[in-house]
Amino acid sequence: MKVFLSFVISSFMYCAGTNAQDFVSAQLLGSSTKQEITATYALPLILFGAKYYKIRYTSPDAKGKKDTLSGLIVVPDNLNYKFPRAVYQHGTSDCKTCVPSRYGTAGGEEGQVGLLIAGLGFVAILPDYVGMGDGRGFQTYVHESTIASAGRNMVTACEKWAKDSGVFFNDQLFITGYSQGGYGSMALHKSYEENPSALSVTAAAHLSGPYSLSGVMRDLILGDNEYGFPGYVPNTIMGFNEVYGTIYNNLEDIFKPAYVGEIRKYYQGISTLSTLNVNLGQLLKTNTGASVGGRMIIDSVANAIRNNPNHPANLILRENDLFRWAPKAPTRIFYCMADDQVPFMNSVIARDSMTARGATNLIATDVNPTANHGGCIVPALTQTIFFFFSFQKITSGIESVVRTNNLKVFPNPVSDLIHVNGLEGKGETIYVFDIEGKTMMSSRNNKLQSAEIDFSFYLPGIYYIAVQSTDGFIQSQRVVKMK
């Protein structure tokens, strides 16, 4: 049985070949107007329409060999400005082609996030990842180096495309992503800070990611608690085998025979991840009485991993943990306490470890204690948008138009009446949004330098006050409503 051998050598060989990238091609897929994006998200802060393109570029595959990868770039439709870049790392995909670069076709729906980001005044960059989209092989899932190289090389390739396309970037870079994408955004952020280049991270927000593979996620899989997503177990193992090549020769080396057929169909692209989750869950309940993912693994292998902290499997997981570093750029970690797929302790451990290592501008927030993994997306993304607003710069010629936090709101936290100072008195619109991005109030300001808003009838929680000037740009402040 060839189980988890020589992984250090394999990892070194991969890292040695991660620097080659070239722009290959761009294909215009479509466009959306400002009105269409506004209607889709019911968000009155949209500034621009957008055009979206499939980008192809070269980057190393799982073995460090040159491959052609794909992704989506979404550009605001007013090219008179220089925009910041925002990388969005997508969540776990149902199939190889269920990726952002297929936006507009079945499976590409998450690419729509790119339209939101572009509509708010960023150039959105959405990599498909190694082994996904046009990339060869099976996806490397939660492998730090390949996720980081795919994202970083796409950013570089987009720079080359932009120069020939009349698209102008400024020097700001924002990074975010959800679920697997939260892991991916953390990996990309870490790469930029530990391997500096001319482009540095302005701010980053990592959303509900599995940062603690060797701790929280390993214990979840190898424990006895029922888990409704057993397909993530083979997805992770097969992804690591693509990189290290030493986990198994055949699926039968690591998985029990009753589960190999379904797993192989997924690996071959015959079935989807959602189908795999359902079928494995049913088989586990029939065979063992409960959907416990670790029960698919051959008992001797599972026991060796449980009992030996230095088992090569545990070393691989530790190598791909993403909490043993300290970000320098302003960083937020957003999560939900009731997450049923990625336990919230991933975020708590990341926060505590990074803070202990010296991170100073790092806050982790439970954005909705009762939301599951699906329900956490909207509040986490809403918080990310307003966080990025506080740094965003959009330049026109030599004049910079900046979203800032120059507003003064007090008291904060608030019980009833809140004061808003710092208005220009030029007909701005004042909004109150809840944590889901729903508009709670809008009011036109007529030549006043300050305003008052009655919060007494709002439920306790997090809100945002946003002020949109007549030219469309925004200042915002986060507000906490007390009981």
Brief summary:
By secondary structure, the chain is an alpha/beta fold. Helices cover 31% and strands 25% of the residues. The protein has helices spanning 7-15, 34-41, 112-119, 144-163, 180-194, 213-222, 232-244, 257-267, 273-288, 299-307, 312-319, 345-356, 377-389; strands at 23-32, 50-60, 66-76, 82-89, 123-127, 168-178, 203-207, 331-335, 362-366, 393-396, 399-402, 408-410, 417-421, 429-434, 439-444, 450-454, 461-468, 474-481.
How would you describe the overall organization of this protein?
- With 483 residues, the protein is an alpha/beta fold.
- The protein folds into three domains: 7-212 and 321-389, Alpha/Beta hydrolase fold, catalytic domain (Rossmann fold, 3-Layer(aba) Sandwich); 213-319; 405-481, Immunoglobulin-like (Sandwich), CATH 2.60.40.
- It contains 13 helices and 18 strands.
- The chain has helices at residues 7-15, 34-41, 112-119, 144-163, 180-194, 213-222, 232-244, 257-267, 273-288, 299-307, 312-319, 345-356, 377-389; strands at 23-32, 50-60, 66-76, 82-89, 123-127, 168-178, 203-207, 331-335, 362-366, 393-396, 399-402, 408-410, 417-421, 429-434, 439-444, 450-454, 461-468, 474-481.
- It has a nine-stranded mixed sheet with strand order 1-2-3-5-4-6-7-8-9, with helices on both faces.
- Helix 4 (144-163) crosses helix 5 (180-194), helix 6 (213-222) crosses helix 11 and helix 8 (257-267) packs antiparallel against helix 9.
- The radius of gyration is 23 Å and the shape is globular.
